[in-house]
Amino acid sequence: MAVFSSTTKAEAVVPHDRARIWDALVDASLVGRMTPFVKRIEASPSGEHWVWSMTGLEVMGIGFSPTFTERMTLKDQERIEFEHDPPSGAKERAGVTGWYDLRDVEGGTRLETSLEVCISLPLPRAAGPAVRSAMKGVMATMGDRFSKNLLAHLAKG
User: Structurally, how many domains does the chain consist of?
Assistant: First the structure.
C-alpha cells in the first residue's frame, strides 16, 4: 500500500451572514447531504469527532468506499479545523486535514478553505502523478458541487 495525497485551497465572498454559514458548516448531517460522494457524516455525541462514510470512488481502476474519522476543533463562528484521528487501533485508508476560516467582509462573509486528502491504495509509488491527478479531479468536483449546494441551502432562508 502506498499513501497518496492532494491539496486544495479556495476562497470566496459568500453573500450571507457569517452565523448562517457557520450553522451550516457545523451540522455534520447537512454537510454530508451537501457533499458529493458522501453517504453520510455522523458526529460523535460530543461533536468532537465526525465519521465520514464515502460512496464508491475509483482511482486508476481501484474502487474503494472509505470511512474515516476527523477530530473537529471549532472556534465559534471563526474557524473550523479538522484532522484525521482514527480510533485507537483502527486502520483507515483515507483521511483529511484542513480548515475553514470565516470573516465578515463587505458584501457578506469571506470563506477560506484548505484541505489535504490522503488515501492509501494498493498501487506502486510510481503511480503517484496519475493518482494525484485523479484525486484533484474528484476534489474539484466535490468542491464545486459543495459550493453550489451550500449557496442553495443558504438561499432558502
Answer: 1
Cα–Cα distance between 70 and 96 in angstroms, integer? 7
Q: Centre a 10 Å sphere on the Cβ of residue 105 and count the other Cβ atoms it contains.
A: 12
Q: For 38-95, how does the pLDDT look when each residue is reduced to its tens digit (9 = 90+)?
A: 999 999 999 999 999 999 888 888 888 999 999 999 999 999 999 999 999 999 999 9
Q: 30 and 41 in contact (C-beta within 8 Å)?
A: no
CA–CA distance, 90 with 113 (Å, rounded to integer) = 28
What domain range includes position 52? 2-155
Beta strands per DSSP E along 15-150 = 38-43, 49-54, 57-59, 62-64, 67-75, 79-84, 94-105, 108-121
**Residue 98 CB neighbour total at 10 angstroms:** 17
